[in-house]
Amino acid sequence: MTDSKHEVLIIGGGIAGLVLALEVADRRRVTLLQPARDEQGASRWAQGGIAAVLSPQDDVEAHVADTLVAGDGLCDEAAVRFTVEQGPAAIGWLLSLGVPFTPDPDPQAGYPYHLTREGGHGARRIIHADDATGRAVVETLMAHVQAHPAITLRTDLTAIGLIGDSAGHCRGARCLDEDGQLHRLLAADTVLATGGASGLYRHTTSPRPASGEGMMMAAELGAELMNLEFQQFHPTCLYDPEGSPFLISEAVRGEGGLLLNAQGERFMPRVDSRAELAPRDVVARAIDAEMQRTGTDHVHLDIRHLGEAAIRHHFPTIHAHCAARGLDIAHMPIPVVPAAHYSCGGVTTNLEGTTTVPRLHAIGEVACTGLHGANRMASNSLLECLAFARSCGRRLRHAPPAGDAPLVAWQSGRRPIPRQEIAALRDEMRRIMSARVAIVRRDAGLDEAASVLADLAARLAPRLPEAAPDVELASLWHALRLARLTVACARARRESRGLHFNPDCPVHGDPSPQPSRIHLGALAGG
């Protein structure tokens, strides 16, 4: 095992991690971990854009109000207002870096860049780079990160756990290199930007979804987790059982896309007055119910009426990707199905990304800031990455010196656990989570999930002390425990709210609902 010392260690190289690195690096040296396997993380696949108040016809109060409605009574209004107010300056900063947002060719437009509209928004406020915003932002930020002399980018290391000391502070991370060798990166300040937990489910909108590894690494040091039961399922993932996951952006519906059932009939108008532009939780449940009613495994998203020129102009990436799979979306509807997409819960933080563990911060999807409440509104996620990464950066630029309490000892064995066994356990976890803890949950199903997951954990736990350090094994162990905590939160919420829908308690409960707060100690045996 090798030891090295670092000032600021950022684990995760998506938009949140890249923004933070650039914010801090003018004052402190930064080490940024972006394993090669994570290059296709969630940020790069974000299509729709970034929500911000940019148009003269829009205002902060309207964006705040729309977010509070989408969050179904569980948003932290202070976090919502803070995030929304940061939007215009954050977009201005990205423009100064050269992000190629799509211009608006209309000389009468009140803003020089095209703004689209997505579900839950009462105005056009989504700035985008065609339909590949995440890729454009990541590539621009990465170019600046690679050119900065105070940022060291490591693509050869994967974090498998955090290092704590006897004072309860975070002191860095344990990592494995590509040869399986252990490295201890000691850091004055550590920041998690590791993404969410959609990988707990079988069908997702990302080819390499995170499985909550960062959340559980924080929980192992005693950090509080919050709102784990609110897992968002994007309503429209391309239905292609033989192909890799591919998201069909919310902006497709924002520009007039219509959802049709197997008979070619619209069904959203009878579900919600906002029809296809209702918030994601409403649309995903409606699609799920329509599939159950008609006995089909997908529905259709139809944009043929927009015309081929408009489709190619607004959605070049989606058009090209579907064409490569034999779908001409200008002349045929797109088969779509809901898929696990975004974790509204995560590591509890304040407005500066501070967790309940000293010297440990969390930003992006791994964090739970209170912005999203019980349901994330479209395109608020990249806005959250920007707002909280910049806020966290301002704090870390002036952080006091770290302590020097003794480090907590950590032991590992040398006996490898076969990869096929790890894969089988992960498949079983994803099966039960998808079957019992997805868009609609019932008490009996949650009880079954709790039992199955506890059994899987009990089969693995006794072997860990002798097991050789392994990235896949660490990921599975983190995922299993997070799945169990997610089920515990879902069982405890005796109401239906936002993304948590349980027909056994179908109505809202407390008119002033509280977030679900939980620690690793809630699990017997940890």
Walk me through this protein's architecture:
It is a single chain. Helix content is 34%, strand content 17%. With 526 residues, the protein is of the alpha/beta class. The chain folds into 3 domains: 2-230 and 344-396, 3-Layer(bba) Sandwich (FAD/NAD(P)-binding domain); 233-339, Succinate dehydrogenase/fumarate reductase flavoprotein, catalytic domain (Flavocytochrome C3, Chain A, domain 1, Alpha-Beta Complex); 419-522, Methane Monooxygenase Hydroxylase, Chain G, domain 1. The strands form 4 sheets. Strands 1, 2, 6, 7, 8, 9 and 16 form a 7-stranded mixed sheet that branches. α1 links the parallel β1 (2-11) and β2. α3 packs across α4 and α12 (419-436) packs parallel to α14. The protein is globular. The mean pLDDT is 94. Its cofactor is FAD. Residues 500-526 are annotated as: Disordered.
